[in-house]
């Protein structure tokens, strides 16, 4: 288990990571999300021990041992700055990393062929890396990170630079790592991919946690809150004060409403009001994608931050 508590990282005047607390459970796929500059890479570098935290703690428990970062013998790492040997062949590159991690020759041969086939790269095995497209080089780098079958896999933006077909291959790749019992932490900007595979997510903004938890629960909570209603005929919400004054109602079309339930409001309370407006022919939850949830949460957090900064400026004046 990985436990992060009140972690902070400052660079001169910039607070890159601002008091983060979260856990990563063994065997799960954990996604770090957030806009550019949110602090993901700074966090990742502390998790792998490349930089020191200014405050707080990281505790990795592995059997009887504890570590204050993920040690290299337990880790498969795809760093933000990629680096392989362009003049060497695909196989030589992979063999180099496998040897570095003590993988036997027999294990290497089997795993190398297995993953190259999964990524449609089998026939490129003897070509120099520089002859491959950037996306294909990235796939080789991904393979190099996990050939030694580490317990923990940390991937900084594994989808970047890949076309949709190759992004899907990476989703399959990550699902297989999970199946093999590895714990995967990844940072990513591709919400559709994250939605397909993450068990839990941590959304960062300006170094702080904005959303943290089970992906399924996050999606369900948002889904339950927005109700789409379609009537047989057009309706006039101004005729019903109790609805328009107490609920957030948006008229989508003359016969369709979108209602966002606020704290403590329930469908039971809403139903009689909806029925009194006209004949309801369809009532459904409006699913929100992770993409929309992300955008709304970041926008709300930014406006909260700027209004609290604004008020503190007024006080200091
Ligand atoms: N070495 C550094 N020196 C000074 N500031 C830094 C350094 N590294 C990161 N920062 C700043 O810390 C903040 C967080 O950056 P970080 O790279 O961790 O974000 P990120 O979420 O990984 O962004 P991206 O999605 O663009 O990779 C940014 O404001 C960045 O400019």
Automatic annotation (TrEMBL):
It comes from the Bacteria. The keyword Translocase does not apply. Keywords: ATP-binding, Nodulation, Nucleotide-binding, Transport. SMART domains: AAA (SM00382). Belongs to the ABC transporter superfamily. The keyword Flavoprotein does not apply. It comes from Psychrosphaera aquimarina. SUPFAM superfamilies: P-loop containing nucleoside triphosphate hydrolases (SSF52540). GO terms for molecular function: ATP binding. This is ATP-binding cassette domain-containing protein. Residues 2-231 form the ABC transporter domain.
